[in-house]
Structures are given as structure tokens and as C-alpha cells.
Design a protein that fits this description.
Blueprint: H1 6-14, H2 17-30, H3 33-48, H4 53-57, H5 67-105, H6 110-133, H7 147-152, H8 154-169, H9 175-202, H10 214-235, H11 256-264, H12 268-276, H13 279-289, H14 296-315, H15 317-329, H16 333-343, H17 345-361, H18 366-386, H19 390-393, H20 404-416, H21 422-433, H22 435-451, H23 458-466, H24 468-479, H25 481-484, H26 486-506
Main location: membrane
Pfam families: MFS_1
Membrane topology: Multi-pass membrane protein
Length: 507
């Protein structure tokens, strides 16, 4: 592995303006997580189950005589969250393919897409604030506030846009570290959102006649979204510039300058048609499924599919984590926020030190990094499923390297494809991966509600063992890496060429 020079570190630091946006935008969307869960439960408890406010304020600590109400509220909340996931993720599948082509063909539009995504979140927050002021509205009406991200694609724009920009602007040898920095920004939002969101919710309501300070949480979240939108539209001025020179073996392509000139000549009407035409979906699909040397397309497909399985196992906890902690640990929203902000430090540290330690210090391949992450999260999930006591919550320390799974996954994919395929492959992966939150939500919700009364940890046990599938793929990729890794192939070709030149000069 080549060593990173101080000049290259400075060049990497200049790229971090997208990370600032990613942190702010993600924090804006994750900050209301605890508040939304609690708002759903309170609406069900008061409006549907006709309980007093004093009971609903401490429902997690209610006695056995209210077990039926407590379990009913938790099940209804879990089901509603599942419906939200179904409604928001299925349209994202088509949007992902359109957006991937858009970002590849018109990179100059990226900052405006990212800015509009943050502003869309504000519209959603305003709708939820309205429902807080009119608390008598049923909890199910919160479902319709999520139509905003459905129609704008705000969630997938932030994710695809950030990783597309980072991949285009980062040399191959930096990508694992580069993606780690983005993952650190993601992990950093978790303790902040958990601690700040839980603290704001538990504070004195900013508006009268409110059971909790839901509105305060959404106001702060909206402010963060405004800052993110302004930041990205002002700072991401180089999105349309040419990509950095990479180490991969590249196909013959037309000069980018002529392509840019052709793009600039198009009218707005032509650009819109170019973005939404159905051929883009087929083109993105063909890019993924096309035959590659050494059957590398099969490695690409297996990586995408096992990545989806890992996402299904990992993401579903978001749908039941709050209810699980209330049921098993009997924690309040404030306690969940406080404890959650502590335990998330361990995966954040793992994501921070994992890639530099294993890749740049120990010279391990990205696939080895993936194996370490998968084993780490398997242990954490199995411990949480088998040990139903608060101490198991802190067993997350065994999952400290869980965050490197998705760092390694993106880095592996970037080594399998050429730079002009980045947006389309990521978009296709996101589109197919759009099924992951849906499947994950349904699976976690159905298993959790079915086993809530006698063993709510079963869902963690099942998903813990399901991680063996992506683990097997990572092992196979590691064994066959000389066949599919374009960076290693390019390095080998360069070495062979240099040896030929050296032999020629000696003759």
C-alpha cells in the first residue's frame, strides 16, 4: 500500500465540505427520531386507548394492570412505523435510478439537488408541528406527513449525492478512509441526535397545552436543515469539475470537455427529458449486469445483494429499538436518549480507527475489513437477543467495528467499477436497496410484535445469524480479489510494464 503524503492529506481535507453538509442534513433528519416515536405513542395512548395524561407520560413504568394498554401502544406504534417505511421506500426505487443518471450526466446540479432535499425536510417538519398543535388528530395522520420525502426523494438525494461526489473526487487509495470520514459524520449525528433530541423532548414545552416539547425538537431540526441547504449551495461549487485522476484501469471514453460542451448546449426542456426518460433505468441496469473481465460482474452483483441483506439485518433495529428499550429495559424517552448517546460512541470509534488501522497500518484488503465488521455486529446482535437485561444494551462494545461494514462495502464496489459508472451503479444499488428498509421494517415489526409478550429478543437472534451470508461473500471476495479488483489489476499491469521496460533497457 502506498503511503499518504502530507500534501495528499491536505487535498483530502479540502473535500470535507460535503461532509459538513452530510452531518447537518443527517442530524436534521435524525434529531426528531425519539420525538416522533414518543408522539406516536402519546397519541395512541391518549386518543386511541383513552388513558390519562399522567399514565401516558410514564407508560413504560406502568404496573402489570396496564400491560394490555402498554403492549397495544407499542404494537400500534411499531405497525405505524412499518407503514411509514413502506410508503417512503418503495417510490425511492424509481427515483434512485433517475437521480443516479442525473448526477452522472449533470454534476453541476448536485448542490441544488442537495439543497432542495434539506428544504423539503422543513416542509415535513411544519406539517408535524401542525399535528402537535392539533393533538386530537389521530396518530395515523402522521403517515401523510411523510409524503414530502416520497415526492421529493430528499432522503436518497442526500445519501446518493454525498457518496457520488466523494467517489468522483477521491483517488482509489483514499476511498476507504474517505468513506470512513462520511460514516464518522453519520455516527457523530447519532449521539448528538439522541442526547439533544431526548433532552429537548424532556424539557419544558415551548408552546402551551403540549404534553411534551415535541415542537421544540422540530424547530431546532428545521434550523439545522436551513443551515445545511445554505452551506451546500454556497460551498459545493466544484461538483461539475472533472474527477480526480484515479488508479483504476479505465475504458476508452470520449473527452470530457466535448461532453460538457454538448451538455451546456441543451435547453431546460431537453435536460428534463434527458433526466426522466425511461431509457435511463435500462441504462443503469445494463451498467450493473454487463459482462466484465474475469466474470467480475458476478462479484459486483453478489456484493450488492449481500449488502442489501446486511442492510435488512442492520436497519430494522430503527423500527423497534425505541419500543424494545421501553419493553425490556423499562426506560423513558430521556433515558433512551442519554444511554443511546453513550453506547453509540463505541461504533463511532470503531469506524474512526478501523479503516486506518486495518487497511493503512496492517495493510489488510477492504474485504478483510468487511469480515471484521460483520463478525463484530453478529456478536453484538446475538448478545442483545439472548440477554434481556439492561446490561446487554452496553454489549454494543462488541459491535464497535459494525460501522466499517458499509465503508468496506462501498469501497469494494468502487474498486469493481470504472469512474464513469459510479452514479449509475450507486443509484442501481440504492434502488434495489430500496427494498431493504421495506423488507427489514416488515420483518422486524412482524417478528417483534409476534414475540413481544414472551421473548422480544428473538428478532435479534435471527438477524444475528443472517449476517453469515454477507460474511461468506466477503470471504469469497477476499480469496478472488486479484480477479475483480481494478486497482490491484492496474497495479499489476503497471508493474508488468515496468518490468518489461527494465528488461528492454538491459538488453
Amino acid at each position: 500500500m502506498a503511503k499518504i503524503t502530507s500534501k495528499e492529506v491536505w487535498e483530502l481535507a479540502k473535500l470535507l465540505r460535503i461532509d459538513v453538509f452530510f452531518f447537518l442534513a443527517t442530524l436534521s433528519t435524525s434529531l426528531p427520531g425519539i420525538a416522533l416515536n414518543q408522539l406516536m405513542q402519546d397519541k395512541y395512548c391518549i386518543n386511541a386507548y383513552s388513558q390519562n395524561e399522567s399514565v401516558c407520560l410514564d407508560l413504560e413504568k406502568a404496573g402489570p394492570e396496564l400491560d394490555a394498554v402498554k403492549n397495544g401502544v407499542l404494537k400500534d406504534t411499531t405497525t405505524l412505523k412499518m407503514h411509514i417505511t413502506l410508503m417512503t421506500t418503495i417510490p425511492a426505487i424509481i427515483l434512485s435510478l433517475i437521480l443516479g443518471y442525473w448526477m452522472d450526466k449533470y454534476p453541476g446540479h448536485l448542490r441544488y439537488l442537495l439543497g432542495s432535499a434539506s428544504l423539503a425536510n422543513i416542509c415535513q417538519h411544519i406539517m408535524i408541528i401542525h399535528q402537535c398543535l392539533h393533538f386530537e388528530m389521530g396518530a395515523d395522520s402522521l403517515l401523510w406527513t411523510h409524503l414530502v420525502p416520497v415526492f421529493t426523494g430528499s432522503g436518497i438525494i442526500i445519501s446518493i449525492g454525498t457518496f457520488t461526489y466523494a467517489t468522483r473526487k477521491t483517488p482509489a487509495k483514499f476511498r476507504a478512509v474517505r468513506f470512513t470520514i462520511i460514516e464518522i459524520c453519520l455516527f457523530a449525528t447519532m449521539p448528538v441526535a439522541s442526547l439533544l433530541g431526548g433532552g429537548l423532548l424532556a424539557s419544558k414545552p415551548w408552546f402551551p397545552n403540549q404534553l411534551r416539547n415535541y415542537i421544540g425538537v422540530y424547530i431546532i431540526s428545521s434550523v439545522l436543515a436551513i443551515i445545511a441547504a445554505v452551506w451546500v449551495m454556497l460551498m459545493l461549487y466544484d461538483a461539475a469539475d472533472d474527477e480526480v485522476k484515479t488508479d483504476e484501469s479505465q475504458p476508452n471514453v470520449d473527452a470530457p470537455s466535448s461532453k460538457n460542451i454538448e451538455t451546456k448546449k441543451k435547453t431546460v426542456k431537453q435536460i428534463i427529458y434527458d433526466i426522466i426518460k425511461p431509457e435511463n433505468i435500462l441504462h443503469a441496469s445494463r451498467t450493473v449486469f454487463k459482462k466484465r473481465p474475469n466474470n467480475a460482474h458476478w462479484y459486483l452483483l453478489s456484493t450488492i445483494l449481500t449488502g442489501i441483506i446486511a442492510n435488512i439485518c442492520y436497519l430494522g433495529e430503527q423500527n423497534i429499538g425505541f419500543q424494545f428499550s421501553q419493553k425490556v429495559y423499562h426506560w423513558s424517552a430521556e433515558q433512551i436518549g442519554n444511554y443511546g448517546s453513550i453506547v453509540i460512541i463505541f461504533p463511532a470509534l470503531g469506524a474512526l480507527i478501523g479503516p486506518p488501522l486495518f487497511i493503512h497500518k496492517m495493510n489488510l484488503h477492504d474485504t478483510s475489513l468487511a469480515m471484521i465488521g460483520i463478525v463484530s455486529i453478529m456478536v453484538a446482535f446475538l448478545a442483545k437477543g439472548f440477554i434481556l437485561s439492561p446490561i446487554a444494551y452496553f454489549f454494543v462494545i462488541f459491535g464497535s467495528f459494525a460501522g466499517v461494514i458499509f465503508v468496506a462495502d462501498r469501497s469494494i464496489i468502487s474498486r469493481l467499477i470504472h469512474k464513469d459508472e459510479i452514479g449509475q451503479v450507486y443509484a442501481f444499488s440504492s434502488a434495489i436497496g430500496g427494498f431493504a428498509p421495506t423488507i427489514s421494517s416488515v420483518f422486524y415489526s412482524e417478528v417483534f410484535t409476534a414475540t413481544l409478550d414472551y421473548n422480544p429478543g428473538i428478532v435479534y437472534i435471527i438477524t444475528g445469524f443472517l449476517f453469515t451470508i454477507p460474511l461468506a461473500n466477503a470471504i469469497l471476495l477476499n480469496i478472488k480479489k486479484q480477479k475483480w479488483d481494478l486497482v490491484l489489476i492496474a497495479e499489476k499491469e503497471k508493474e508488468t510494464q515496468e518490468n518489461k521496460v527494465e528488461l528492454t533497457s538491459k538488453k
